[in-house]
Hints:
Layout: H1 2-20, H2 54-60, E1 65-66, E2 68-71, E3 77-78, E4 83-87, E5 92-97, E6 101-104, H3 107-111, E7 117-121, E8 125-130, E9 139-149, E10 152-168, E11 181-186, E12 192-194, E13 204-209, E14 214-216, E15 223-226, E16 230-233, E17 242-250, E18 253-256, E19 259-264, E20 273-278, E21 291-296, H4 322-333
Amino acid sequence: MKVWLLLGLLLVHEALEDVTGQHPPKNKRPKEPGENRIKPTNKKVKPKTPRTKDRDSADSLPKAQSIMTQMMDKGRFQKPAATLSLTAGQTLELRCKGNKIVWSYPAYLDTFKDSRLSVKQNERYGQLTLVNSTAADTGEFSCWGQLCNGYICRKDETRMGSTYIFFTEKGELFVPSPSYFDVVYLNPDRQAVVPCRVTVLSAKVTLHREFPAKEIPANGTDIVYDMKRGFVYLQPHSDHQGVVYCKAEAGGKSQISVKYQLLYAEVPSGPPSTTILASSNKVKSGDDISVLCTVLGEPDIEVEFRWLYPGQKECSEVLGEWELCVAALRSFFSPCGCH
Length: 339
């Protein structure tokens, strides 16, 4: 039996040589213990550093938390969407969690001290209520909490809420304007806005020049349309001057806005000039005194007043000496802290 087995192996060996012309590979020597290890090489291998997840860096920053809710039917509350569409006449009630809530809403409601608007601060939330809403109330409603250290408070960027509301009203595609003709100043160093906003989210809005009569395309480069602002001139120049108006189409109806006179101002805008004047430089205890701060500047610039007077930290050293404190106001505020 062994003879036949050896003979068979010999025949296989010879057959392999005939086919390949090569000798079959010889068996490797038995490996010594430990030879299964990977042999070191001279190739440089960069050490792998653990990948930091993007969310780790994001987690290190405080996340903004929406604190706004809207009251629905039957006493239900839900978080409002970024844009809402309500029918004019509906009552709007918004709430924001927190014991120190500040609200922002369309300036139209503040300008006329509208009695339809009510803002209250409760123990755990702020509440805004608007009754008998109209198309003119269309705009941004927002709220935020405050972080206070004594009497000094700042906006809490992590606790905010916002929604833009379209109040649709029959026959009103545009947010009503207080005048039939408005002026828009074109400054070379800032954007200019033709504020023809609509009350219907799906409305198609176009911009037109009165003379020569033609449509002005919002090409996204020079002019863009923002439903929350109107037509925005990104880089105003003198060629944009003239009288323009907007046209809106929705539901098979169309409407034309008020007209806007675009005036180009070559002088770049600057800070407003301020003056301060006291009714008297010297007063006795018990007398009245008035201090008038006047600001002159462009009509679209927002002005905020801050006052320092005897009794505050900056004037504590001259408490009771009004003449010195008024003089300090003149020099410290340049003048009177209007900015």
